[in-house]
Every structure is written in structure tokens, then in C-alpha cells.
Amino acid sequence: MDVNKNSYTFLFATAMVVVVAASLSFAATNLKPFQDTNVEQEKMQSILSSIQIQVERSEAPEAYGTYITEAIVLQKGEAIEGQDAFAIDLAKEIRKSDEERLSPLYIADKDGETYYIIPLQGNGLWGPIWGYVSLKQDINTVYGATFDHKAETPGLGAEINTPVFEEQFKGKRMLDSNLTFVGIDVRKGDASTEYQVDGISGGTITSDGVETMILDCVKEYVPFLKEHSGKTATAALISE
User: In which domain, by residue range, is 199 found?
Assistant: First the structure.
């Protein structure tokens, strides 16, 4: 074959495209189980981090099995059967109406105390943001929070996944004195109450996204949590 002909160039290019595509497809197919495992382990790490359990990724499955005692799915504030809480894609669920949305809830036991872990999903300035917030048994006090993002600006909105920002949420409250859900106000400075945290300087839109994310996601769980822990919450608030 005359290698100087256009037909040879075309055939060679076609053959290379086929070979490269086949190689990439083969690699993607064979690596997918490992990728899926890594994603699952990272998710377990984040869930555990919200109750202040820090483990290596490889240790996450064992620790998850130790601390997470139950994982349920809520719809319209009621627990439903036949759904795998861990497999719920919250990014898809938040686009549904409140009536249709499925909301996973993780219940943890740590040192004899019960914690409710709520997954969060929302939008920042440049893309999705997400996280987990854990509530103490009074269904009001935040025990821990962890956040992450896809494409927020480094040094600005991306700071939502730093300890400086996340640590502020510990001890904050979700319900007011009338047990009405109010969420947490992420504001520009002067976070002086138990319902407020300081936003990120220069990251106003991302900070607002965190506040909206908490309001939109946590409200789905309040009826269930009040029903199952209302007596504890009421007693805690009355005693203050």
C-alpha cells in the first residue's frame, strides 16, 4: 500500500481511533468496580465525619458498620420500605416535589448516644455543593457538619469544606423555642446567636447556597424526627 496516499492516512487514523477507543472502553469497564468502591467508601467517610469519626478510606466500611445502626428512607415525613438509603441519589431527589422526594436518614450510635445524620445537596456559585449534618438526640442541636463542592472558587466558596467553616456549626440549633424549624443563618459576620454562623468572606453566593441547602433538605426530616424524638427535644428545651 502506498503510504503517501490519502486513503492510507484515512485508514491509519481510523484504525488508531478504533484501537484507542477500545482500549479506553476496556479500561473504563474494568476500573469501574474500583471507582464505585472508592465513591462508596468516601461517602461512608463523610457520613462518619459528621459525627466526628475520622477514618482512612479503607477503614470506612468497618467503621460505618460499627457506628451506623440504621439507614432508612423517608417520603412525606414517613419511613417507607423497599428502598436502599445508601443508594439514593439525592441530587436527583431534590429536583422532585416534596410529595415525591425520597430522603435518606442515617441513625448512629456513638458512646451510647444517638445521632441523626441528614445528607444535604444544593447549589453553590459554580456547581453542586453537598454535605452531611448530624443532630443530637434532641433533634435540635447540631453535633457536627461536613461540606464539599464540585467547582467553587479556591480560597473563597471552596472554603466550605475547611474545619474553620464546618466547626462553626457544632452546637447550633435548628429549631426555635416553639420547636419550629428555622435552619441556620449563614451570614456576613455578626453571627451572635445559636441559629447563626459566619459566612465566607468573598464567598457570599456559596454561603447562601449552604443556608438554602440546609433549609431545603432538613425540613423534609423534621416531622419524622419530632415524632420519634419529640419528647426528648421538648424536655431539653423546657429545661433551658
Answer: 47-238
Q: Tell me: the pLDDT tens digits for 169-214?
A: 999 999 888 888 999 999 988 888 999 999 999 999 999 999 999 9
Question: Whole-model pTM?
Answer: 0.83
Number of structural domains found in the chain: 1
User: Which has the closest alpha carbon to 91: 131, 62, 138?
Assistant: 131
What ranges in the chain are assigned the alpha helix state H? 6-49, 60-67, 90-93, 163-166, 204-218, 222-238
Q: Nearest 5 degrees, angle CA 154-CA 145-CA 62? A: 105
Instruction: Place 234 in a pLDDT band, splitting at 50, 70 and 90.
Output: very low
Q: Are 183 and 173 in contact (CB under 8 A)?
A: no
54, part of any domain: yes
In a domain? residue 3? no
Residue 216 counted as domain residue? yes
Span 17-31, average pLDDT:
77
